């Protein structure tokens, strides 16, 4: 995803006071994806660079490691085992494996979407907040260290910890259950259309992330409408 500078800014939602303010604040919920939403994660071309370096045909890395990527995403393999499989399948020595994985994490972690993160931070105490991420083994430690998402929201559901990834309906149900909210009270934000469709199928409201302007405006409508109900 190519990140574009925003032409204008919309302030984070300000919760309006209403007669049912207490209950609405308790139940209203916003759940967000990480990669491509809270993190800006354009492709860096690292896989292609490694294929050129190793003189491998295009597509070889993902063909050889596809099942490793899937296993890492569902937590059925450890970080150590990922390293071992990378070494064995690409014929890399230990320093090369470390460099390969460092390149993977550079793209995976991207840079923080500071404007949206600030918006979510402003919502704390006004509605329930969660994260639902299709992740990779080792993501929690790195994202906590870099971005402190554990301080931003009340709950983070990582696919590599639950063994369930989006668009599986159980992933959305687990995110709602963990926050003690009904799906219909939740706005889910993701940059992948099929995940938005899956969230809507379980009763959640969905917003396809394209930029901060529209996303922050959608959050404002969701939070303020719920408070005034």
UniProtKB/TrEMBL annotation:
InterPro entries: HAD-like_sf, HAD-SF_hydro_IA, HAD_sf, PGP-like_dom2. It comes from Streptomyces pristinaespiralis (strain ATCC 25486 / DSM 40338 / CBS 914.69 / JCM 4507 / KCC S-0507 / NBRC 13074 / NRRL 2958 / 5647). The lineage of its organism: Bacteria, Bacillati, Actinomycetota, Actinomycetes, Kitasatosporales. Signal peptide: none annotated. This is Hydrolase.
């Amino acid at each position: 995803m190519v990140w574009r500078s925003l032409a204008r800014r919309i302030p984070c939602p300000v919760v309006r006071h209403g007669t049912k303010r207490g209950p609405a604040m308790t139940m209203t919920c916003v759940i967000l994806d990480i990669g491509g939403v809270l993190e800006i994660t354009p492709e860096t071309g690292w896989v292609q660079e490694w294929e050129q370096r190793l003189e491998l045909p295009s597509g070889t890395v993902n063909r050889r490691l596809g099942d490793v990527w899937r296993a890492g995403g569902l937590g059925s393999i450890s970080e150590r085992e990922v390293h071992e499989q990378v070494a064995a399948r690409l014929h890399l020595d230990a320093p090369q494996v470390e460099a390969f994985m460092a390149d993977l994490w550079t793209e995976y972690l991207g840079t923080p979407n500071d404007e949206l993160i600030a918006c979510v931070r402003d919502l704390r105490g006004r509605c329930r907040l969660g994260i639902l991420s299709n992740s990779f083994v080792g993501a929690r430690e790195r994202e906590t260290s870099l971005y402190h998402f554990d301080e931003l929201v009340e709950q983070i559901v990582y696919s590599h910890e639950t063994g369930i990834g989006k668009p599986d309906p159980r992933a959305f149900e687990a995110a709602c259950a963990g926050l003690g909210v009904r799906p219909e009270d939740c706005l889910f934000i993701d940059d992948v259309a099929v995940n938005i469709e899956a969230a809507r199928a379980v009763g959640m409201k969905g917003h396809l992330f394209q930029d901060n302007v529209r996303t922050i405006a959608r959050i404002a409508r969701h939070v303020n409408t719920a408070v005034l109900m």
